[in-house]
Amino acid sequence: MAWLDKLKALFNFELNAPLINITKNSGNSNLGKEYVNSGEKIDILFDNLSKEKQEKLKLILKEKVEEGSKLLEEKSFGLLRELINFQRTKGEDKKVLDFFQNLIPKEDFEALESSLYLRRRFQEKRDVSKLKEDIRTRFGDRGKNISNLCTAGYFENFLMPLFNSSKEGFDNIYNVVVSRSPMAIFVHSAMGEDQITRDIKTGLEVSKKYGIKFLHIHGIGDQNIRTIKRCIYENKELFNYYDKEIFENNGIIIVELIL
Q1: Angle at 186 between CA 207 and CA 219, to 5 degrees
Q2: Distance of CA 45 to the CA centre of its chain
Q3: Structure confidence at residue 99 (pLDDT)
């Protein structure tokens, strides 16, 4: 959502959920303004911008401007409205954002904001697959980890208490957690039991190294739940070495290993 703020700043307009259309070679000499606000649509006339603004706009929109394509197609209109409304009325999520705003890198904060919105949609039982892919595309594996950790509640339930109890401990662990996500294994349908077992062993090793006292294995959906249970059964020696708790409810399973 940072691109939205940059776009507003570049043109000094208040963005109230419009459709945004980047136009090249409009052929309309009567449109001399940099942008035209027509109801719930804003046309940005690329050819009428100064060279400086063209370059800034390219940085914001990257290849989309180069192609002369729409920033947001009409089918995305509703999503844009929701994103803007989320920014205005974050509710309980605002406490999380306020807490981390000056603690974590700017790009991590933007990934967290997007992930909180994704989590809200997930809790409403709406499809989040496109949002997850967007976060992964924009922020890479680090963004994917932030999204997974956020959806599972780690920012409130682990990282906030960690900072409040030990700023030094937070500084030592935060980057490891979001870059390698050692304390949580998120099982998806494409993972086989061998890969899950390898990921668990790696997670245990990294968690021990950094003094993290637990490892969680998460799964959503019947198929992933069955896969996790088989993995536990077939690796009894590994799992019985640690104290463990299994939480299962409404199609979600969390296995907690206490180190």
Answers
A1: 125
A2: 31
A3: 94
Q: What is the CA radius of gyration of the chain?
A: 22
Q: Measured between alpha carbons, how far is 219 from 249 in angstroms, rounded to an integer?
A: 11
The pLDDT value recorded for residue 69 is 44
| 3-state secondary structure (DSSP) of residue 211 | coil
Rounded Cα–Cα distance for residues 186 and 26 (Å): 48
**CA dist 18 to 22, 40, 42, Å?**
13, 4, 6
| Every domain of the chain and the residues it spans | 2-71, 73-167, 182-259
Please report the pLDDT score of residue 20 as a whole number.
55
Backbone angles phi, psi at 98, to 5 degrees: -60, -40
Residue 48, classed as helix, strand or coil, is helix
DSSP, collapsed to helix, strand or coil, labels residue 216 as: strand
Could you give the angle at the alpha carbon of 143 between the alpha carbons of 139 and 144, nearest 5°? 120
Token output for 152: 């599972």
On whether the CB atoms of residues 82 and 120 are closer than 8 A, the answer is: no
CA–CA dist 206, 192 (Å, integer): 21
Residue identified by tokens 């199609």 is 251
Q: Which residues pair with 217 in a beta bridge?
A: 185, 255
Q: Is the domain 182-259 a CATH 1.20.1050.10 member?
A: no
Alpha helices in 12-68 (DSSP H): 51-61, 63-66
pLDDT tens digit sequence for 17-43: 344 555 555 455 444 555 555 555 566
Length of the chain: 259
Phi and psi angles of residue 42, each rounded to the nearest 5 degrees, phi first: -120, 125
> Which of 28, 30, 26, 33 is closest to 11 using CA atoms?
33
Q: Give which of 144, 149, 204 is closest to 174, Cα–Cα.
A: 149
